[in-house]
Specification:
about 375 residues, alpha+beta, DNA polymerase, domain 1, hpI Integrase, Chain A, 3 domains, 4-stranded mixed β-sheet, 14 helices, elongated
Length: about 375
């Protein structure tokens, strides 16, 4: 019997109140039965006909018995190996939480109710909704791949955590200039043996708007994933696909203040990574995760709180937010989108919303004063001509 030639019949089981409908699975040869929910044969036959139609029109799915362990290994080998390291790390974290909380034996065991219980348990354990949502997105991406490989009939429905109205647009916020000075001041307390290196690095983050991962691989030489390019009229950033969040080669403008900062470095020292963040004992470049923890430790030591509700201190990403907010006051949205390398203009526009009201008011008054002076000067010139 072929898959699209399924025949559903109505039968009565002596131990059941309602009539049953059943068919023989064409793959396994097993009998599949379901209650019709009625004692009337005519109604039962109508339901059986509808079910048979659904099965024949493609809603029948083969049983899937792949183990979770085998699925995870295949996803790692066939999909994750081609993606950025950050994506791999984030997916591994999501899978590890899923195994710890749910411990699925089969891929097919991951259903909508299971995923609902999964996020409820994570929330009860104190995990933030933003983190839960990130884990679910990576799990959904993996399950979607499983569907494309015919390991699952469909992706289970997921109810993603929703942001409560009234919360800020960002889980952190831009660091102010005053707060940034406080962070610089405490660096010797956090990194007493290489304070100058970390002072240089934080100033670089403040001026560049680079993502954490990008900053650790920014280099002077041609084989660097992100290169300081001086072949054009002005210094630029050349970002190769493997180091870029959007996974495409890009040649991007560099802000003048960051260019000035970089080219204070003597020419004979322009080798390797721009920010030489070496371990004190290994003398090797630190991982981006380690660098991020140190920047956050500096933010905590400086007591720069960027999210009171979550007790979050300033991080490398908050310095990137500061870059975006500062330049939002100076350039058009399309230009800022290019500087920040956002895929969506909606993401860029958040930096305009995040601008401090007093700063915007100062700029408005400055512009108004300039126009008033220009108008008065024009009037004086007009009177003198007459």
């Amino acid at each position: 019997m072929s898959e699209n030639n399924i025949e559903v019949t109505v039968v009565r089981y002596h131990d059941r109140r309602y009539l049953m409908m059943r068919y023989v699975d064409p793959i396994t040869g097993k009998q599949i039965a379901r209650s019709t929910g009625t004692t009337k044969r005519r109604d039962a036959e109508r339901k059986a006909a509808n079910w048979e139609k659904e099965l024949r029109e493609g809603q029948y799915h083969r049983p899937h018995n792949i183990s979770w362990e085998d699925f995870r290994q295949r996803y790692d080998d066939e999909k994750l190996s081609s993606l950025a390291q950050n994506t791999t790390d984030a997916t591994d974290a999501a899978f590890n939480h899923l195994e710890r909380v749910v411990n699925p034996k089969r891929l097919a065991a991951i259903s909508s109710p299971v995923l609902s219980q999964f996020q409820a348990k994570l929330r009860k354990a104190g995990m933030k909704d933003t983190t839960i949502a990130t884990h679910l997105r990576h799990i959904r991406a993996a399950l979607s791949w499983g569907v494309s490989m015919e390991m699952l009939p469909k992706v289970p429905e997921m109810h993603m955590p929703k942001r409560v109205k009234g919360l800020t647009l960002m889980c952190g916020r831009p660091v102010t200039a005053k707060e940034f000075k406080k962070m610089l001041a405490v660096i010797p307390k956090v990194r007493p043996k290489d304070a100058d290196t970390w002072t240089y690095y934080l100033n670089g983050l403040w001026l560049s708007g680079l993502r954490l991962q990008e900053s650790t691989v920014l280099g002077w030489e041609e084989d660097s994933p992100i290169l300081i390019d001086i072949s054009g009229r002005h210094p630029r950033l050349r970002i190769y696909a493997e180091a870029e969040k959007g996974h495409q080669d890009r040649l991007l403008p560099m802000t003048p203040d960051f260019a000035e900062f970089l080219f204070k470095t003597p020419e004979d020292e322009r080798t390797g990574c721009v920010f030489k963040l070496h371990g004190l004992y290994t003398d090797k470049q630190m991982t981006s995760a380690r660098v991020g923890r140190i920047v956050s430790a500096i933010g905590e030591k400086a007591k720069v709180v960027v999210n009171k509700a979550e007790g979050k201190f300033a991080s490398a990403h908050d310095l990137r937010r500061s870059f975006g907010t500062r330049w939002a006051a100076k350039v058009k949205p399309a230009t800022l989108q290019l500087l920040m390398r956002h895929k969506s203009i909606e993401t860029t526009l958040k930096y305009y919303v995040a601008q401090d009201a007093d700063d915007v008011a100062d700029q408005l008054r400055k512009d108004h004063s300039s126009r008033s002076k220009a108008k008065r000067k024009s009037n004086r010139n007009g009177r003198q001509k007459r």
